[in-house]
Amino acid sequence: MARLLLIVAAGSGTRLGREIPKGLVALAGRPLLDWTFDSVAPGAFARVVVTAPADRVEEFASLIGGRGRVVAGGETRSDSVRRGVRALAPEATDVVAIHDAARPLVTAEEIRAVLEAAEQNGAAAAATPIVDTVKRIAGGAIVGTLNREELCGAGTPQAFRAEILEKALSRGDATDEAALCEELGIPVALVPVSRLSFKITTPADLELAEAVLSSRRTREAPNMTQRVGIGFDAHPFVPGRELRLGGIAIPHEKGLEGHSDGDALLHAVTDAVLGAAGLGSIGDHFPPGDARWKEADSATFLRGARDMAKSRGFEVGNVDAVVIAESPQIAPYAVGIGARIAEILEVEAGVISVRGTSTNGLGFTGRSDGVAAMAIVLLKSR
Ligand code: CTP
Ligand code: MG
Predict the structure, then answer these.
(1) 217-230 tens-digit pLDDT
(2) Ligand 1 probe mutation, 5, 6, 7, 8, most atoms within 8 A of CB
(3) pTM
(4) CA 9 / ligand 1 centre spacing (Å)
(5) Which of 17, 139, 340, 364 shows a CA-CA span of 20 to 30 A to 254?
(6) Cα dihedral sign for 29, 30, 32, 34?
């Protein structure tokens, strides 16, 4: 039973009144979809699919990078969900979470709560209490008052066991998937979420989200213009594999074991970049075991971290890294490694420093069982 995530972002954002789709609209200096991605912790899912407007698939794909696969959505929201679910290719017992790109302030905890409720009940939806008095209207006048106690606001995340979702989606269109379940008589569990998971629909909503993020920023990182991050990684040697360190091949009788190419140095630098940007760890974004990263060039991870830091408004100031290995000697390759890391990070080679050291025979590196690497990164506000 796997957890899968669909982010729907194929709408045109008519009510927001911008030229571009909502997912690309700038919110506190970054595309709205970037914020949504930060909030949903995509690393917790076996597969992530995003629906984009059909003429923007490439643009969305380059924004999302390694964080998910982008497919074209459809005319209606239900069409988009059907296409997205097809791309996720769930098995019957998988659970699919569906989230509107237009709700960037959702939290990973809220998504998890909805998923757990769906795993238990088959279907679940995020709910908020109605705070206004709700009126029935006709001909521009109020003709009645609804009982608020019997009402709630329903939004996303919503989550469904795949077999239920498939049945629901075959019924037709609705403004959300819970409505399709209701038609089938399938109970949908309600999971209370914060009102901050509101959907950005109008220009006023965008202003509200800007205000929330700006108040968070002052609270969390007052006047922060520079941030440091640290990274560490170690991999064992195995015979029959090319040794990759710092993005280059180094002649050696053994290579480093790993799901990807095993490049412990690039992993340490990637983790340091992510850590400095407050973006979690390499495993959150590029989970080991994910088929996409099998035998992957670890430069992909570092490039992804660089782009995520960039969309948070940071660029790399400098990197200092140490490779801990008894053999091979790192010194002959240090300049080449530095140049390659600079190339991946798109910075001058002069701001990257790489050294090798040994542990004088102590421990696993001393026995030449493997290689460890440490990196420290300084990020500067752009
Ligand atoms: N959505 C989608 N495909 C559609 C329509 C909507 O994937 N054909 C997505 C939107 O991108 C959004 C979510 O469903 O993330 C909720 O829809 P809504 O807030 O209505 O967004 P838009 O349809 O983009 O906005 P508008 O209705 O104002 O045009
Ligand atoms: Mg819409």
Answers:
(1) 767 665 668 999 99
(2) 8
(3) 0.66
(4) 6
(5) 340
(6) negative
